[in-house]
Amino acid sequence: MKGFGVFEKGKVGWMEKPDYVCGPNDVICRPIALAPCSSDVHSAMEMEGDYLKNRILGHESIGQVIEAGSNVKDFKIGDKVVIPCTTPTWQHPDIQDGTHQDAGGLFTAINFSSYEDGTFAEQIKVRSADMNLAHLPDGVTIEQACMAVDMMTTGFYGPELAEVKFGDTVVVFGIGPVGLMAVAGAKLRGAGRIIATGTRPDCIKIAKEYGATDILSYKDGDLIGQIMGLTGGVGVDACIVAGGGFEALNNAIAVARFGYGNIAMLDVVAGEASVTLNNMYIAGFLAHKTIRGGLCPGGRKRMERLLSVVKYGRVDPSLMITHRFNGLESIEPAFQLMVNKPKDLIKPIVFVD
């Protein structure tokens, strides 16, 4: 089979791999729709390791089953399926102690384009299919479902990690696709005021549609000062960092309320040997502010819940799609869009004929 991936750090292109062998708990799909992600760029251009040599990229996909293992009970050939980016084995005992994302080791649930080849290929193999796949529901478009498999589950994880409560004042740093979904998720969890930081007009427009009540820009001055000014010097109840790296993380720590504030770190800090926290903001670790980070949840039930949110009109994640391509070969220019990040880009999607 043919796939688009990384040969070594900084070198991407098309490669040939053997066709998959379907295990008893697996399914093999043909791709229907694929979406490049900033994480693909991190993997190809910023990270390195043996696991990222000759590796097919991709983890956002909708597929159609072309082969199902003997133990697979809920999915059959011809089914259109939603494939989460996070696909654990669900059989490791560590799941009984903690999060499924790290059962058996760090990031072990992120198999696509790390432990195994990713989805930018003529075939996609999904492990533990009955536990990981979801059927594409009636009333949910392929575009909406493709935006749910990573962007929606990751963005919604921000308000979950930050424990957003009814009436909370929330700030979302960065309104790319993950930040936009964090805004939507915060609204659904009952946030009152939702402050979003960003400068791109298309992102600002959608952030307001998703529930942002205030938009701030670093171009108008120090973000910490602006946020503290909006909140009368009190700060916010919950912060979600969806862009800006550790600088944004420090800003979040600074504006989180003393004795209460929760901070969710969703942004991937790649290519940095260390991260420095401003001691004035953390008040010598005596401020009772909580920082949480983690890999987005996966699995079938998570995906079914998100798709229900979409189906019944609570949020439309397809509003984030700004660029559309056709044909598997279009993965390459779509990926380059994510590398170059033109100002009108939020998310691309590739429809595979």
Fold and architecture overview:
With 353 residues, this protein is α/β, with parallel strands linked by helices. The protein folds into 2 domains: 2-136 and 316-351, Quinone Oxidoreductase, Chain A, domain 1; 155-293, NAD(P)-binding Rossmann-like Domain (Rossmann fold, 3-Layer(aba) Sandwich), CATH 3.40.50. Helix content is 28%, strand content 21%. The protein is built from 10 helices and 16 strands. It has helices at 38-46, 129-132, 142-161, 177-188, 201-210, 223-230, 245-255, 279-282, 300-311, 331-340, and strands spanning 2-8, 11-16, 27-34, 55-56, 61-68, 80-83, 124-126, 134-135, 170-173, 194-197, 214-216, 238-241, 262-265, 290-293, 321-326, 347-351. Strands 3, 5, 6, 7, 8, 15 and 16 form a 7-stranded mixed β-sheet that branches. Strand 15, helix 10 and strand 16 form a beta-alpha-beta unit. Helix 3 (142-161) packs across helix 9 and helix 6 (223-230) runs parallel beside helix 7. The protein is globular, with a radius of gyration of 20 Å. The model has no long low-confidence stretch (mean pLDDT 95).
